[in-house]
Design a protein that fits this description.
Layout (H helix, E strand, L loop, with lengths): L2 H50 E3 L30 E3 L9 H14 L3 H12 L6 E2 L2 E2 L4 E2 L3 H10 L7 H19 L3 H8 L5 H6 L5 H16 L3
Antiparallel strand pairs: 1-2, 3-4, 4-5
Length: 229
């Protein structure tokens, strides 16, 4: 065997040795990944559970301690009604126009009502339709134009068009303020009064809230979660 052939043979043996080392290392990496794979799956499952679905209950109370009752309400940030079990976090955001959303933010900041609360009322009352009418109730927040307080408020503030988005939202906040003077900050009572329910105090005392009030509060909470509040 010539020197050239011996050199080529040693070179091939050297390359073969490195190939075996690389194959062995890949085998070890595969074993490590195989053992780690179940943990990765569990993390992904946890992420899906916490992001996609939310149990409706106060944050600091565990499921075994949860007592079904009307939550303490703060107008700027409402809590969901206790009888609903789940709200999907992938639920759709509000469909009302961007212009109305902006006005809900602006008027809400000035009047103390969270924008999502106003958006929820608008969705429920009119689906965001500017010229919605139901008897004397008009506009996106369905303002009852038969009330003398409404005409007086519009005159004092120089409002002339009840269907104007901003005017209608401000009138809605004014009606909410009037109901709060009667029922305090119990948002369910305020909403039932806003919607024209009778025997509001008796219904609140017995926990007999209307679907309207429950739906508005739960939709508000849902929108706040979607808006990361």
């Amino acid at each position: 065997m010539s020197a050239k052939q011996r050199h080529r043979k040693r070179k091939m043996e050297f390359i073969g040795s490195w190939i075996l080392v690389v194959v062995f290392l890949l085998f070890l990496i595969g074993l490590v990944l195989l053992f780690l794979k179940p943990d990765v799956a569990i993390e992904n499952d946890d992420e899906i559970e916490t992001v996609d679905i939310c149990i409706i209950q106060p944050e600091n109370i565990g499921p075994e301690e949860y007592v079904e009752e009307k939550p303490q309400v703060v107008i700027e940030s409402v809590e969901p009604f206790g009888t609903i079990d789940f709200i999907l976090i992938d639920a759709e955001d509000t469909y009302i126009s961007y212009e109305i959303q902006v006005l809900c933010v602006e008027v809400g900041e000035q009047t103390g009502y969270c924008p999502e609360f106003l958006m929820s009322i608008i969705e429920t009352e009119s689906s965001g339709r500017q010229y919605a009418e139901n008897g004397p109730c008009k506009g996106i927040m369905q303002i009852n134009t038969d009330w003398p307080e409404i005409a007086d408020y519009m005159k004092r503030h120089g409002y002339t068009d009840v269907y104007d988005y901003e005017t209608n939202i401000r009138l809605g906040c004014y009606v909410l303020d009037m109901k709060r003077e009667i029922y305090g900050d119990d948002i369910y009572a305020v909403l039932m009064g806003y919607n024209g329910s009778s025997d509001v105090i008796e219904r609140v005392e017995s926990g007999n809230y209307t679907d309207y009030a429950i739906n508005v509060v739960n939709r508000t909470w849902e929108l706040e979660r979607l808006h990361e509040k």
